[in-house]
């Protein structure tokens, strides 16, 4: 743990006291989003201290040209960069002509920030003494509307504490922004036009190269002691900036407030030529409803989300805060309403991990969205990859594969690979496995088998072809080997026979064959018709099978475990316990070669395979492998502790499971990996949900039925969660000595509890 | 082979006929340099077709900021970039106001380029018909003076063929240049001042970040039919450009000519504030001596170089041209006069391989410079690394090593690492071995053992410490292993136990211990005094020895060969013979992962070890390893064929040896690797010299004596070379049935020929 300043609270993230050193961390932690846009919790008024400005529009990116020392054939031409979009939240505030700036104020007291997760808003309040001696009390509140996802609203009010003064609000929109990760303050937006009319401002801008057009807009209303004022704002504009100032002399004790409405409308959703008109309509709606009306709608929207998604924990406020923070951020990032979007690892909270979509979605996020939303959302996420199949085939061709073999990109915005480090782009090929696994996982959970003949099978075929071609035969071993890969543990590069990769490769081939046959049989379809994008013939299947049946798996007789890769035991096998605290995280202290030759594991690798394919291994197998690998695991990927938490719970190692749970759920709140200032780890938050539902709750799907083996950490009195399973909603409440099952929505459901069949019907609390 | 347009000639590189497609290749091949500056063979007059402009100043570079997807701890902040310097060769030529431009002329005939290697100049002649119908005959000649290394001289003459016309020469200097390898046409020079006075022009510029100041200058004289004209030039300048135009109406058959003198003076050699004055003095000297006088001096300078360095080959013009081209380019690049400089892999012929110094210098270039120049030159090259020892220790510290361990950079300009690909920077650590080996090689050749107590030992100690710390103990193998390296064969990354690396690591440790003991004994020095930059104690030596004595070497019983690295035999062992021609070079056709998992070898790796440590292995060992590895070797590094050539000759495989010789000597002339347009492969040219002297000549140093085992390819009548051995110069002439030895300079020398002792005295041709 690296920080401990967030006040524990069941429903809110709270910071008290102003500390310039935590500004960047808090900008990440208090981020808000609505699936279509999002922003870091930057101050509205100007702030001259260290800050990381960020406002992002879903699906809007820039292709940064690949720059490497030595070009490698097959590199993508560009690396997608998440773009900081024009600022619409800014409100310059002056009191008697002095700019309000918390970095230069004489004194700041009673500073409080709150991110109210139940209702979906961010607030801030403080008392400040300016250099001119004037004291003010400030309260701000802001949210991005879920109901109207192009609208954001801000209330900003200033109360004079020690005398009269002139207060001026200058709300603005600003296109003169840049990315923090740029080296040379490059501009990525061409500003096309700035217009102002009747107190409304519009800034039209186009991203360079990708040509996304966005209209950033704003309109403001002002109030004195709650009463709307008819002050005509003074408009100002430049080539990339527009402001509109409202000035008023007010008396001690009076409150001058501004309600600012702003946001983006984008040509991804509207005709490019109509953007200003669309923005005007949006503004009309927003100002008609008003700040308070929009806020009420916001509360209702969030209430609907929490209805199914909430997890309660009794007796452990920090744990409760952690899980709600995770669920809240996931819903701020992706709501499943736009099939072109996906779940970026940093959501709308930072610039890192440039691209939008990683294997995180398939490996970690799909279970969360399947169980807490309508199953169409998960289907949409699968379809996202289906739509990218052509590009995945193209990508594989660039690497020398043929005949319709598909390699999905490691990082993508539009289906094209947009990451350019060879050990990742070319070698972290296990991602292909997760995409196939997600199809299996979806069908297992939803029983929507139709997805496979409709769309899934083509993806499975492309992936199976890839694995078949990627394996090579080792005469020495008399087996098929997969050489030169990076496994889920990215602290190993270009290794041979990564067990996880070989295992999922074999599984993919077998699963594709199984489904080709099933679809041919059940849907009376010949092989040619099955696949429009790739062709297969029966002989090919035989060849696939030859590879799958003779795949090599590295194994240690001595330790009786599968080895993460060839040669793992040649390492100097020091454990995490031997690592001095000052060396951690090792990725911030050790050079890459040192990390690579160490035995330290960034994230579950062999154990990730045991997580996906748990039913293929005995509990003894799992325990042996867990005991072998856990001591080497540094969990420096956010995606790691959740898997270990689920497995520790299964093995009855509840203390460990609880520790891992805290680590995953409070990874960002407590900043375990010393990097929260860069943004939040969104995709791994779905892992936190897994830790509770699959770990403590022991939820699995067994033969088409929900199954539970509930456990509870000794630190908790009780916890509860809900599961949307095939359109029935089941609520599970676990206490230290019993578990209640309640069917919220549905007719009846037969489940397994600790292996025994239990029937749950509506209005009938079943206690086990 | 990729091209075949260079006319075979013993002393010149000649191109006939104008072909826009070979302009970039010829710009590389006809490059000129004088150790202090160099330039691609760009046309003086303007050319609107595809061209790669380049003029470079020794030691002047720019630190390009490292940009990578995911930052890795220990990366250097920058990547050194060779900078294109202001253009001083430009002469715009207009005939009746039409610009002469070979790309737009109606006709170009009798185009001929010649790089005269014997005398060190470049010429070009052609007949051109302009769009206005005027026909001209043009002759240009240019060189960079060896005598005055800040001066370049150009003669440019235009003869009217079909009528009278006005001819205008506008010689210029231009700071508005950029690098071809830049993405965004970034400028790397700040232009400080442009001044013109009395027909002289000066452009002062400073490199960004590194703040090198250079004054580019010019002055011109004009001639009509050989008679100097008193035409006052019309001066023009802008913020980064200066020209001075000379215009004259001339008659059919008359020749209007300009002699332009220009170049750079740099604050690496002069007071920054005096640069213009220095340039004026240089210009005074140059114009006093005049073009023809400077050319005479140039011929004399080159004649002195060839006196010792020349190699003759009879009966094979292409082979003769090849070796002279190699010797010529090496001398254009590095003359051993400036201890701060080194030998860049592309010399002054292109931008690639950003930095200046690689292990190429120690592994390939030192033997050439030792044998063809005074041995002080080789000592200077060793001292270059000695001066960088502190930086090498710093570099090792960044990677977690301590106690004075030194890791020399992979690429450097000033001792700091300036390459930023982890598999190279952090893992291609064998470079450290070559630096130690060069010290051994130097002492063996020159018998100047004093270098070791004076300077070499500190370097050896730093390197031995590094290897000791870098090896780890494998409990499984019961041996010390070196994990995660890139060997000389860069088509393998992050491999374990690269045989070459492990071997040279052991050798370095043993050699350091041997010399610590010898120096302590012979120079009566205690351990502390030996090393000022690092400290050692006796216990440490024991620990080093423990590692050296128990180093692991991968070995195949089946094939009875050392394996390039762990797991080599798991590959699909297809050979180069199985590779379709259209896949080659594989680095231009295969993605990196495919290259890595293939068995293909970029350059000698195990065989490089056999080359360095030939005396540790039997001829049978060598033959077995050569036969095993050669079939997998694609020789896509310029540094590869020479080693195979030397070894093939030793093994009596003369056909192969000859083929490799042609490949190394004509690598650029015939463009084997499809990349000559980017520049020449300078450092590997020293390998060509090795192929003859060590390969065919069989030269070795055995027990302090020169030893020869001469062989001759059946394609040659005879060949000869000279060797400067400990200040005596021996000439060796080999024909199909005998070898003559002649002592050119020295008292007497006892040598070994095919194992037998032979005494050579002056004026006494010894025939064997």
From TrEMBL, chains A, B:
It holds the Pfam family Glyco_hydro_65m. SUPFAM superfamilies: Galactose mutarotase-like, Six-hairpin glycosidases. Residues 699-759 form the Glycoside hydrolase family 65 C-terminal domain. Keywords: Hydrolase. Residues 324-690 form the Glycoside hydrolase family 65 central catalytic domain. InterPro entries: 6-hairpin_glycosidase_sf, 6hp_glycosidase-like_sf, Gal_mutarotase_sf_dom, GH65_N, Glyco_hydro_65_C, Glyco_hydro_65_M, Glyco_hydro_65_N, Malt_Pase/Glycosyl_Hdrlase. GO terms for molecular function: hydrolase activity. It comes from the Bacteria. Residues 15-267 form the Glycoside hydrolase family 65 N-terminal domain. Belongs to the glycosyl hydrolase 65 family. This is Glycoside hydrolase family 65 protein. It comes from Asprobacillus argus.
């Amino acid at each position: 743990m690296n920080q401990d300043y967030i006040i524990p609270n069941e429903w809110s993230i709270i910071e008290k006291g102003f500390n310039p050193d935590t500004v960047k961390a808090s900008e990440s932690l208090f981020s808000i989003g609505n699936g279509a846009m999002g922003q870091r919790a930057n101050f509205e008024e100007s702030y001259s201290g260290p800050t990381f400005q960020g406002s992002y529009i879903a699906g809007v990116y820039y292709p940064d040209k690949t720059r490497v020392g030595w070009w490698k054939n097959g590199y993508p031409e560009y690396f997608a960069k998440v773009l900081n979009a024009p600022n619409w939240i800014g409100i310059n505030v002056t009191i008697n002509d002095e700019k309000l700036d918390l970095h230069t104020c004489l004194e700041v007291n009673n500073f409080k920030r709150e991110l109210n997760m139940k209702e979906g808003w961010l607030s801030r309040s403080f008392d400040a003494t300016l250099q001119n001696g004037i004291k003010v009390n400030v309260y701000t509140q802001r949210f991005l509307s879920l109901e109207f996802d192009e609208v954001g609203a801000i209330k900003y009010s200033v109360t004079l504490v020690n005398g009269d003064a002139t207060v001026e609000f200058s709300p603005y929109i600003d296109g003169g922004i840049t990315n923090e990760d740029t080296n040379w303050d490059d501009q990525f937006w061409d500003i096309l036009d700035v217009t102002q009319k009747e107190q409304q401002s519009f800034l039209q801008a186009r991203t360079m190269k990708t040509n996304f057009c966005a209209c950033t807009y704003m309109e403001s209303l002002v109030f004195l002691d709650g009463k709307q004022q008819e002050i005509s704002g003074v408009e100002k504009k430049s080539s990339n900036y527009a402001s509109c100032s409202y000035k008023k002399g007010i008396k001690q004790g009076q409150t001058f407030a501004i309600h600012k409405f702003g946001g983006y409308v984008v040509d991804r959703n509207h005709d490019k030529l109509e953007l200003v008109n669309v923005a005007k309509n949006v503004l009309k709606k927003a100002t008609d409803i008003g700040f308070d009306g929009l806020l009420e709608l916001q509360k209702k929207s969030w209430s609907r989300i929490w209805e199914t998604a909430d997890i309660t924990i009794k007796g452990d406020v920090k744990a409760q805060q952690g899980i709600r923070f995770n669920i809240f951020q996931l819903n701020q990032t992706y709501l499943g309403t736009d099939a072109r979007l996906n779940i970026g690892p940093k959501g709308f909270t930072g610039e890192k991990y440039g691209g939008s979509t990683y294997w995180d979605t398939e490996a970690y996020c799909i279970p969360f969205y399947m169980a807490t939303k309508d199953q169409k959302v998960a289907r949409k996420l699968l379809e996202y990859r289906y739509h990218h199949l052509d590009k995945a085939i193209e990508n594989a061709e660039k690497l020398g594969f043929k005949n319709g073999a598909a390699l999905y990109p490691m990082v993508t915005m539009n289906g094209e690979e947009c990451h350019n480090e060879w050990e990742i782009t070319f070698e972290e090929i296990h991602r292909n496995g997760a995409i196939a696994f997600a199809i299996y996982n979806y069908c297992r959970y939803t029983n929507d088998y139709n997805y496979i003949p409709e769309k899934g099978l083509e993806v499975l075929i492309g992936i199976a072809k890839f694995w078949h071609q990627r394996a090579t035969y080792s005469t020495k071993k008399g087996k098929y080997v997969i050489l030169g890969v990076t496994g889920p543990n990215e602290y190993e590069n270009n290794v041979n026979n990564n067990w996880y990769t070989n295992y999922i490769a074999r599984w993919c081939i077998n699963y594709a064959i199984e489904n080709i046959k099933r679809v041919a049989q059940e849907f009376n379809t010949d092989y040619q018709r099955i696949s429009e994008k790739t062709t297969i013939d029966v002989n090919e299947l035989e060849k696939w099978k030859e590879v799958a049946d003779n795949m090599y798996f590295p194994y240690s007789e001595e330790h009786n475990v599968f080895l993460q890769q060839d040669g793992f035991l040649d390492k100097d096998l020091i454990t995490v316990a031997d690592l001095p605290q000052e060396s951690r995280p090792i990725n911030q202290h050790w050079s890459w070669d040192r990390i690579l030759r160490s035995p330290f594991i960034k994230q579950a690798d062999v154990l990730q395979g045991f997580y996906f394919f748990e039913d293929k291994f005995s509990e003894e197998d799992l325990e042996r492998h867990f005991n072998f690998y856990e001591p080497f695991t540094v969990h420096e990927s956010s995606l790691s502790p959740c898997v270990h938490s689920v497995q520790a719970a299964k093995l009855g190692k509840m203390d460990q499971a609880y520790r891992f749970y805290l680590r995953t759920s409070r990874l960002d709140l407590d900043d375990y990996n010393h990097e929260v200032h860069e943004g939040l780890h969104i995709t791994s938050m779905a892992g936190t949900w897994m830790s509770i539902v699959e770990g403590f709750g022991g939820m699995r799907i067994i033969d088409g039925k929900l199954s539970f083996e509930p456990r509870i950490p000794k630190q908790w009195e009780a916890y509860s969660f809900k599961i949307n399973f095939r359109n029935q909603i089941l609520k599970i409440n676990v206490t230290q000595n019993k578990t209640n099952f309640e069917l919220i929505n549905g007719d009846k459901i037969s489940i397994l509890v600790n292996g025994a069949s239990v029937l749950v019907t509506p209005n009938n609390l079943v206690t086990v």
